[in-house]
Amino acid sequence: MRFASIGSGSEGNGLVVEAGNTRVLIDCGFGVKDTVARLARVGLTPESLTAILVTHEHADHVGGFALFIEKIWLFGRRDPIPVYGIESAIAQARRAWECFDTKSWKGVPEIRWHRVKHEPGAEVLRNERWRVTASPGIHPVPVVGIRVEAADGGVVAYSCDTDPSPEITKLATGVDILVHEGQKQSTPGVHSTYEQAAEVAVACGARRLVLVHLPPGVVVDDLAEARKIFEQIELGHDGARYAF
User: pTM (2 decimals)?
Assistant: First the structure.
């Protein structure tokens, strides 16, 4: 199993988790051309996605949803597309889509909405390849972090946007890779710093920490203090792929 970062900054966030021919896009916070280009950069096409998961309602995570569904259709997808998320995230994605009149669009794939419970360890989806679960983070709006467990034992967790959260730390217990947001400055109740993300990595026993949702201009030297807490830390990069 592997994942690819297609957006690691505040101008838009998203990643794709892959296992065999199963691919789930987590968040879609880009303009349509940008999203398609970002997927192409990691060797994927829009119509190849198995499902979409939205973590919360903020624009940099779900703002590109409607245009992306249109692009899936234009690329030739006709099969239904499952969309998973907590109630508020699903509602925002649905509003974005339903504000457009698509009655004349022949063959637009049916969107099958799946509500995820906003509670610790909520199951998102399960198949022969993996099990995906979610737990609440700490943010101004309801949000969830995601854990993906591969059938062969590999595990990755994504914090999404959150102040240091006991539930996200528990969700990430024993992961091979923790994908955690990181900011230069603390914003209590909203975001985590690099050092706080490093502390979460230590607490959950992660083997590796990849920082995302990065501020503009961040460089490796900015991680010096965080590396004193957790050495195996790195900046996420758009287009990077990670196997585990």
Answer: 0.94
What is the residue range of 180's domain?
Answer: 2-237
Query: In sequence order, what DSSP letters do the residues of 65-94 get, joined into one string?
Result: HHHHHHHHHHTT--S-EEEEE-HHHHHHHH
Three-state SS for 225?
helix
| Alpha-carbon span 43 to 31, nearest angstrom | 19
Residue 81 to residues 47, 56, 102, 142, 219, Cα–Cα distance (Å):
9, 18, 16, 24, 38
| Alpha carbons 214 and 25: distance in angstroms, whole number | 19
Q: Is the alpha carbon torsion for 68, 74, 76, 82 positive or negative?
A: positive
Q: What is the pLDDT of residues 190-233, one digit of tens each?
A: 999 999 999 999 999 999 999 999 998 899 999 999 999 999 99
Domain with residue 92: its CATH number is 3.60.15.10
How many domains does one find in the chain? 1
Q: Running DSSP on this structure, what letter comes out for residue 215?
A: P
Sign, Cα dihedral of 100, 103, 108, 111: positive
